[in-house]
Specification:
One of its GO terms (molecular function) is catalytic activity. InterPro entries: Biofilm_reg_signaling, CBS_dom, CBS_dom_sf, EAL_dom, EAL_sf, GGDEF_dom, Nucleotide_cyclase, Rev_trsase/Diguanyl_cyclase. This is Diguanylate cyclase (GGDEF)-like protein. The chain has 22 helices and 20 strands. It is an alpha/beta fold and 611 residues long. β1 and β2 form a beta hairpin.
Amino acid sequence: MQTLQVRDCLDPSARRVRVDERYRDLAEADVEGMRAFAVFAENGGFAGLVTDRQATLFPSRRFGDLLTRRQGEALRPNDDAVRALHRMRVAVQAHLPVIEPDGTYLGVISVQSVLAELVRRAEIYRQEREVLVEQLEAERESLRAQYLHLAYYDSLTGLPNRQLFQERLNQAIGQSSHRGTEFSLLFLDLNRFKDVNDTLGHSFGDRLLKVVAERFSKLVRQTDMVARLGGDEFTFILHDTGDVDTVNATARRIFDELAEPIALDGIQSYVSASIGVSRYPADGVTAEALVMNADAAMYRAKEDGIGACHFYSPKLHDRMLNRLDISNALHRALEREEFSLVWQPQVSLTTGVIVGAEVLLRWNRDGMKAVSPAEFVPIAEETGMIGAIGDWVLHETCRYASRLEALQLACDFRIAVNFSPMQLRWHKEKSVLRTIHEHGLDCRRFKIELTENSLFLNKEGMAEFVRELGAAGVAISVDDFGTGYSNLSSLKHLPVSELKIDRSFIHDMQASHSDKQLVLAMIGMAQMLGLRVVAEGVEHPWQVAVLKDFGCDIGQGYLFSRPVAFDELLRRLEAPPFDVRAMLSAPYPPSGPDGPGRGGMSADAGTVAAG
């Protein structure tokens, strides 16, 4: 409800102000001195009374205009309406003086001036309402635009999201079908990006994704599209790419862009990716088929290694179904107790004594079919199952290790357990050290093996983890050394005590002179850093002779023992040492792809390995 102030409703008319001044003079006059005059019409009839105040107030008016009407005049049938209109007219024209309590005169007020103020305010309110309506309409359009942006664009990177990607993909299918052209769909996944989130935090990972998205945006034409499906998955729609070379060139530009380091918070990060490609219409005529096939090709690219691009082929569909089958079976494997452990001895190349053993995981699916770790471990890492599986492996290892204490083994005997970088988050909840202590074991009895890539790609998180274990006495071994990429200067700042040379280098020493020189260089570097060296994949006596000559400390491979059950390991620990001196005199085989270095165990391997 509007409140009107009297000051706002004063009549601005100067004439009415003068009239009001007369009113004020009359109001101060003696009321008892008022006189009245009778007025008669020309026909002699009495017309009414006129006061001297009226005559003074309106000196130029005729008396007839100033008559005070008598009560009870005869009325015609419609006089009620006439009288009502007359009263309204008189009321509207009536003026009232406005005087402050202290006697200060302000002016006059009338119904007309009040109505005028209301009309003025109504016009103001109308204008304000129009402005408000325009503002609300603009805000509604802005909210609509924001809603559409949120519905179709990724809030983190600003790239098109899954919804818009699906629409554009269907549009591309329709256009290409109508025009008879081809296009390609690239499915890109950043390798081990989960490690970044686990070690450096999700905030760091988000900023890294924004930088990656900006780089991707610069690589596509205006007619093409790059979208973020979620997490670390991106898709590219490349129109008019009937030529495979065009797709490969785009993939190379993507890899080259990712090869440039990303500096955030003083940390230089390197991101790699795997790309799968499906093509319309060769690899599918529906959006679902194209995405599924590009996804299958991407997983195949991951198997090819860092920075690989793979085109879809029908065989990949069966591989994809197999991956899905393994993933589903993994979730039941722990409950069904389908996992088991085997142990592979590690032997001193100086004394022939077993100085340690690596614990290896085996999965007999449904109690019958053996599934290779190379097949199920990557899937376990991708699905997050590796945390629970790794925890089970450590508990089982500790349970068996308790039995080793009765053998009074040398203090430097170590049990090697592989650790995936995907277990870092799990480690924060179920610490490796806490598990060892729960079983009442000495931490110095254990050795954690980390791959070269996992140790250096997740530098900050892994460094903290490694230092924590090293301080407690757990040895740290860099597994598969030479197959990844690492900052070698960082080794001296971490409590790493051992390097494991990958079996591929040992295997090719006979056929490849360069591999032999690489092995020599790696052993020499480890010696300069004061690190112990373990060679994997030792299968022939001549390899022992070469490795011992290069200064390698420990050998592991089929020459000494296949991975065996725990009871068999106990038997071998109680057996005499291996006759390393006999191996050192073994002749070096002739070079060539058909030499002993290319086969399995040599014929004399069994005679050299005691037990």
